[in-house]
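Students often ask why we bother encoding 3D structure as a string. The short answer is that it lets us treat folding as translation between two languages. Here is a chain of 293 residues written in the first language.
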Amino acid sequence: MSTQIISIIALSIAVLSCNFSKSVQADLKTGIVTKGNGLSCEDVWISVDDQEIDRNTFIYGEMFLMHFSNMEGFKKENGNSFPGMLLWVIGETGDTVFKTEDLYSDYLNGISLSPLLLKANLTVGSPMHSNHKYKAFIKIWDKKDKGTFTAEMPFNIIPNDKIHVEKNNISFDEIYLYSLDRDKAIIDGNVSFNETVYMIFEGLSGFIEQNGNVFPGLKFQAVDNSNEIIMDYPDLFSSYETTGVGAGDFRAQIYVTIKFTPGQANNPINCESYIFDKKGNSNIKVSTAVNVR
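And here it is in the second language, the structure alphabet:
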């Protein structure tokens, strides 16, 4: 992604009228626009892995947090604030692709934290897709009064450029690494010993169907930096040689399970999946390097 260098990193516009509780702010780097009506916020910022960022392009599977720091204007009861928060995502055609319930519904007795910091997180995964643009909306409101605060941010999703794909007559929606142990996509290629990692394929199509079934083969190999073969599976679909696999289930998602036992790592380790059609000539090869620690 090309980044335009802007000397003025943020533009704040105060809408001045007889009601000073209303405000509009815009951030030129992230594209975040906020509006306050009775509620105010000192700063709105984005973080990934506990690090503040100033971008709005994310890798498929990445999770970001939106922080609302030092919020004021809530009507308090027994010193506590009672915020509500909704998060939803709009696609390029204006359709709602994701929406939460109230993220603070569990705080029945309010929040005593002062200064008040509110957060919302979003994982840019299904039903969203890479190579598409979206817009996230957040609404914060006072459950004990009429104050509201809203934020919106456009964002893009891109595929992980550490995953390399070569394909022949095959199309797909997403290919990514996922950690079962951490319950998150692996963006940087770093994994731990004994960590359960999936190489996931979603939306694979281009295979010949017979009676609603497809007949894939899947070869997987992991080779370390000294060219030693650590894992070698000639065909993970060999047991479906005659019966095939339901075409719908196959398209929805398949995956390869990867786990490195201690002492195996001579980093980086190249993991390669080769999926092929046993009834045709379509195939796809996917490779990515991981560092095991």
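Translate back mentally: Residues 200 and 289 are 15 Å apart (CA to CA). Keep this in mind for the problem set.
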